[in-house]
Amino acid sequence: MIYAMTCPCGHYDYVDSTAKTLADAMTYHREHGNRIIHEKLTGSPLFRGSQIDPDEREKEMVNQMRLYQHAARCPEALRSFLDCNPMYWCFIPLPWDEAVTKNVANRPGNSTTDPNLDAVIATTAADNRRVANYLDNVPLPPTSYAFSFRQLKQQRLFFERFATSSIHYRPYIKLDLYNIAIIAV
Questions:
Q1: Tens-place pLDDT, residues 61-101
Q2: Which superkingdom heads the taxonomic lineage of this protein's source (predicted)?
């Protein structure tokens, strides 16, 4: 069976074939698409139970596929993922001024003009080495963007749950990111 997948933005198509069912192909792409968005937003791999990931080679190959690289940066695909998984909003940095305003509003009398300083303080105060490691790997915001103090707290809570969960736990609801159509059987 030959099928085509289109990103929700409509600007990226991918054609592939499978000897299995379309449902199997969708499951495969759903797993990798969601995993890659998780890893892009958090900076941390999903598999965390062993030093050696049995699927590492496959993931390295899949990570290079333009379909997934595009979706991890596509505003419409990211919006769909975030709408389905709102706990990931804390990994979306705010414009600098907005982060500072939120910090002042959330911490009256103890405001900061440097939201990134709060990140350093929160990370060094970590009592859990794994959580601290996850927090250290969160991608830095681009210039003129920052995480608010509340976002940093939410990131810590996210990783505390993640670090103490089962190895098979996925912190996100799996979402079909792509529109799919059969081309030929």
A1: 888 888 889 999 999 999 999 999 999 999 999 999 999 99
A2: Eukaryota
Confirm if 134 and 122 have CB atoms less than 8 A apart. Answer: no
Pairing of strands 94-95, 13-17: unpaired
Do residues 90 and 134 touch, judged by C-beta distance below 8 A? no
Q: What is the greatest pairwise CA distance in the chain?
A: 66
| Cα(18)–Cα(54) distance, integer angstroms | 23
The length of the chain in residues reads: 185
User: Does 93 or 109 have the greater pLDDT score?
Assistant: 93
Mean pLDDT across 135-143: 96
Q: Retrieve residue 92's tokens.
A: 């979306």
Indicate the pTM of the whole model. Answer: 0.81
The domain total for the chain is 1
CA 145 to chain CA mean position, Å? 18
32 lies in which domain range? Answer: 2-184
Q: What pLDDT does residue 124 have?
A: 46
Tokens of 183: 């081309």
Contact (Cβ atoms closer than 8 angstroms) between residue 47 and residue 166: no
Q: Are strands 94-95 and 2-6 parallel, antiparallel or unpaired?
A: unpaired
